[in-house]
Amino acid sequence: MLLEAFGLQRDPFIDTADPAFYYETIATANNRRRLFECLAGGRGLAVVLGPVGAGKTSLFNAVTERLVDDPRFLVGLILDPTFADESQLLEAVTAALGFPSCSPALLRAGPRDLREHLKHQLFEATAADGRQAILLIDEAQLLPDELLESLRSLLNFQLDERKLLSIGLAGQAEIASAIVRRPNLSDRVAVWLDIAPLTESEAAGLIDHRLRRAGFAGDRSPFDSVAVHDIWRRSAGVPRRLGALAREAMEIAAERGSRDIRPGDVADATRRLPPSQPATNAPAPPTPVGSNRPWWQRWTAAR
């Protein structure tokens, strides 16, 4: 009903990190540049923070797409970092970077030998021709605390001018707390990115961008300015919640045979979705020295 009612070729607000729908504001462009330059330059550890639905994975995907298309980089991605021990982590890193699988004897030998094996593979694959190895770990708040020390040890693999392995972590508040509790790790952070909520104008731009990418060809947006304001206010500028509200409001408009989304449709859409969870209920990490308090520690759901 949604596609037919609005002349769309695909769902404009599907909850995936599809690069085709990636919308870049000035802030996200700056974040993408800083993340790319840190990882590509072998500067060490980059951390991307934000609550659920803020766009961390979308930012990772945008950077990853650029990295994997460039032969100068060797890129590995870990989406589920729930490892039982250091050996599992090191085995997963080795596999993610495309290196030969660890032999059973090496796995039995323990973490120290696995680290040496990984170091040798990194040196052989990158040092001679100047390639940069990059490891991206999404949902990093799921990483057991004790394994953060293992990641820190991987940052010790270096040449004179760069790290052999750049590491990017994306996660929620818990990973920020875990990093800040470890000064020997927090001192290794080269880039620390807090993803801010969308402004109202950015929210309007995101909605229009997604509609156009999905095939909408109307002269004007089906969302009037008041409806956009209500979606932005009720979502608190969090992209995933914003998209869910926009999609549901379109469904409601289609059900009543309209191609215009009104504020009443947005109110009805809010009642069809689970209540949003205020980010203040999440564990709030300590603020790194010299930085402002992250926005997602202050945010409360709009009523």
Describe it.
By secondary structure, the protein is of the alpha/beta class. The chain has two domains: 2-21 and 198-272, Orthogonal Bundle (Helicase, Ruva Protein, domain 3); 26-194, Rossmann fold, CATH 3.40.50.300. The chain is built from 14 helices and five strands. The chain has helices spanning 2-6, 26-40, 56-68, 86-96, 104-109, 111-127, 148-154, 173-180, 183-186, 200-213, 225-235, 239-255, 263-272, 295-298, and strands spanning 45-49, 73-78, 132-137, 165-171, 189-194. The chain has a five-stranded parallel beta sheet, sandwiched between helices. α7 links the parallel β3 and β4 (165-171). α11 crosses α12. The radius of gyration is 22 Å and the shape is elongated. The two termini are 29 Å apart. Mean pLDDT is 88; it is low at 279-303.
Question: Helix and strand layout, with pairings?
Answer:
Elements: H1 2-6, H2 26-40, E1 45-49, H3 56-68, E2 73-78, H4 86-96, H5 104-109, H6 111-127, E3 132-137, H7 148-154, E4 165-171, H8 173-180, H9 183-186, E5 189-194, H10 200-213, H11 225-235, H12 239-255, H13 263-272, H14 295-298
Parallel strand pairs: 1-4, 1-5, 2-3, 3-4
Helix pairs in contact: 2-3, 4-6, 10-11, 11-12, 11-13, 12-13
